[in-house]
Write a structure and sequence with these properties.
heterodimer, A: 120 residues, alpha+beta, 4-stranded antiparallel beta sheet, 2 helices, 22% helix, B: 461 residues, alpha/beta, Cytidine Deaminase, domain 2, Rossmann fold, 8-stranded mixed beta sheet, 7-stranded mixed beta barrel, 12 helices
């Protein structure tokens, strides 16, 4: 991800989500936290935080949600594990969300939310 | 108000700070510290990351002993704080024993500068701290709080041991009955430090069960035992205190360690975390530890613990044992290699990346082709060899907490033998020869892991 793409992603997220978006730069990467993302009713809990790690050395954003977040079937996503990012505990899992710079970051976040509606 | 402030000063920076502000000159001198931050319960932990000082010409001549400096001289510190998303703490010293206090000039300066710093970096604490020769006092602004917190401050200096300047002049806690022989080594203040300490042990298998038992014998105040695994038949040869009933009941390893500690009966308080690191509960427990001991199986787990130790400035002792047969399939060739390590990380010193114990190549080798951790094959373990490493790990904890083998803040005091660039703290076991030798390791100031993460604390959202 080029610095320009990262900059644009942060701007788009701030414009779309407003106040619940926080971002910091740490160790050459930009961390963006969406504080209140609504998931599907059947997910537990129904709202989560999403952390996006935008790193110039990575081809696409990395994403995390709060530990313990379930899919719509009440189960944890497959191959999920807790990781420490920026001193906090976050849950990572192996959803392969497609990333296309042309679609933008808002589409990427929408795909993450969509993926939680599925049951595996 | 029951809130506490703690300042952690990594190895190297403590020596620098004392040199800069504790000198007997014509007037006081100041230093600007850039700090990371995290909060655990009612304790606000400020983590010193970097120190900036003023040049001689930046001070304005005064008829009194206080320091007055040009406002523009602070710009580099303010810019560095904005760039790094860090708090700013102004340090100066009053050179006497006992708790210091602010003069009216000190207070006026603090009340003027701290709001200025807070406007520049809103999400971090800022403050002004005065050091004496034994204690510290300060005004601190906590993010999202309108008022300054006026507080005695506990300063934790990391050197060859951890030196705590307590927030008050309270006498040391009396030592436990029956520990007189131990007190000959640790001293009364060492006993007090042990009783106050919270040591986290991660992994309670062959190594960790020894470590937690020995720490209980030492009379450590609190043990935080972290492991989500349960005992099995194969552990009977190596987990201290295990019983056949534990195996039948498939008890968690933490429960076995708790029973052993309770049976020792020296009043060690126990916190059990039956989750994997870094779950939120495990991470919170580790953040409140004074020392972490890692007795884990994988490099990935070690990487997590190293990051936590670095980021929150917590000493970390790691042990690991590897026994390999030269010819595993041969009945005739019974030769084995038995290698082990005890690595002691002091915040500000070398880390497991600096000494090459962890590397991206080694981490990748631990993963299978799909990127998942491979199940470690049932490697050979021998209780007595684990015990050697565990005992040395506990010696390291004892030194960190009590300084029984010396206390110094200087980097030089940690030199391994005559080689000044080698820091001690990387010991290698050769189980076949029966030796445990200090190899030492080089601290790399530019290590992207320990220097990049050091004392960052939590994210400054």
């Amino acid at each position: 991800m080029s610095p320009e793409v990262i900059q644009r992603a942060v701007s788009e997220l701030t414009a779309r989500y407003g106040e619940p978006v926080r971002y910091i730069q740490e160790g050459g990467q930009v961390l963006v936290r969406l504080d209140d993302v609504e998931l599907y009713d059947s997910c537990t809990p129904g709202h989560t935080k999403i952390l996006l790690v935008l790193n110039p050395a990575q081809p696409k954003p990395l994403f995390y949600v709060l530990p313990g977040q379930t899919l719509s079937n009440g189960r944890l996503p497959k191959n999920s594990s807790n990781e420490m990012v920026a001193g906090e505990s976050w849950m990572r899992f192996s959803f392969n969300i497609p990333w296309d710079e042309g679609d933008g970051i808002i589409q990427f976040v929408a795909s993450i939310r969509q993926r939680f509606a599925q049951s595996e | 108000m029951n809130e506490k402030i703690e300042l952690r000063v990594p190895l190297g920076l403590g020596e620098q700070l004392q040199e800069r502000v504790c000198s007997d000159g014509q007037h006081e001198t100041v230093a600007f510290g850039l700090v990371g931050y995290y909060r655990i319960g009612r304790t606000h932990v400020l983590l010193l990351r970097q120190l900036l000082t003023l040049r001689y010409v930046d001070y304005v001549a005064q008829h009194h002993a206080g320091a007055v400096w040009k406002g523009s001289a602070m710009l580099p510190a303010i810019e560095a704080a904005i760039d790094g998303n860090l708090g700013i703490v102004l340090f100066h010293a009053h050179l006497h024993d006992g708790p210091p206090d602010f003069s009216s000039d000190d207070r006026e300066t603090a009340e003027r500068l701290i709001p200025l710093f807070s406007r520049r970096v809103k999400s971090r604490p800022h403050g002004s701290i005065v050091l004496s020769r034994t204690n510290a006092f300060g005004f601190i602004s906590i993010p999202n709080r309108p008022r300054l917190l006026r507080s005695k401050i506990l300063v934790r200096w990391f050197g060859s041991a951890t030196l705590d300047w307590s927030a008050d002049s309270a006498p040391p806690t009396p030592s436990l009955n029956g520990l007189t022989a131990q007190t000959d080594v640790t001293g009364t203040s060492g006993e007090s430090a042990l009783r106050k300490a919270n040591v986290a042990v991660v992994g309670l298998g062959g190594g960790g069960s020894h470590v937690s038992a020995q720490l209980s014998h030492l009379g450590v105040g609190r043990l935080t035992l972290i492991d989500d695994d349960h005992v099995e038949q194969k552990h009977q040869h190596r987990i201290i205190g295990i019983t056949p009933r534990d195996i039948r009941l498939v008890r968690l390893k933490t429960r076995v360690a708790r029973r052993v500690s309770r049976n020792i009966g020296l009043g060690t308080a126990l916190t059990l975390v039956e989750e994997k690191v870094p779950s939120p509960t495990a991470l919170a427990a580790l953040k409140s530890a004074d020392v972490i001991v890692g007795c884990v199986d994988t490099l990935h787990s070690r990487r997590e613990l190293q990051t936590i130790a670095t980021r929150f400035a917590i000493p970390y002792v790691d042990i690991g044992l590897r026994i390999r047969a030269f010819s595993p399939d041969s009945l005739a060739d019974r030769r084995v290699s038995i290698g082990g390590n005890v690595i002691t990380y002091i915040p500000g010193g070398f880390c497991m990346w600096c000494c090459g114990f962890i590397s991206e190549t080694k981490l990748a080798a631990e993963l299978d082709q799909f990127g998942y951790l491979q199940n470690a094959p049932g490697e050979a373990q021998v209780v007595s060899l684990n015990g050697v490493l565990a005992s040395q790990a506990v010696n390291e904890v004892l030194q960190i907490l009590t300084g029984f083998a010396g206390t110094s803040l200087s980097r030089q005091s940690l030199a391994a033998g005559e080689q000044a660039d080698l820091q001690r703290g990387f010991k290698k076991l050769d189980g076949v020869r029966g030796t445990l030798e200090e190899w030492g390791a080089i601290w790399y100031p530019d290590c992207p892991h320990c220097s990049g993460d050091l004392a960052h604390g939590e994210a400054a959202w």
